[in-house]
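Archive maintenance. Older records in this collection stored only the sequence; we are now back-filling the structure field for every entry so that each record is complete. The fields below show one back-filled record exactly as it appears after the update. Entries are processed alphabetically, and proton-translocating NAD(P)(+) transhydrogenase is next in the queue.

ARCHIVE ENTRY
Title: proton-translocating NAD(P)(+) transhydrogenase
Organism field: Poriferisphaera corsica
Length field: 112
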Amino acid sequence: MPTFLINTDPATNVIDPFVVSIIIFVLAIFIGFEIITKVPSTLHTPLMSGSNAISGITLVGALLCSFSDSFGSLGVFLGTLAVIFATINVVGGYMVTDRMLKMFSKKEGGDK
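Back-filled structure field:
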């Protein structure tokens, strides 16, 4: 990793938490892209259910980041953006899961 990205304190030799957060964010994007492109279509619904659970964790983390003073206004902006995207994912996931479950329910008055 280039040394200009790591803001280390020579006294404590600690990496800046913002840089660690950016690294985790980039790795999450890479892993998410790889999972979505490699999973067969029959497993998309279970994956979406798991994704909803992860989005719940994302919501909690984004809210904590938004209310933290350590990241400043950029943290508030990124936290708000994460809350919006995680909320879209959770709501969309529940709508698709509800639609899928209706496909398996018995229809009233229909053929058996």
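Update note: Residues 72-104 form the longest helix (33 residues). The chain has three helices and no strands.
Entry marked complete.
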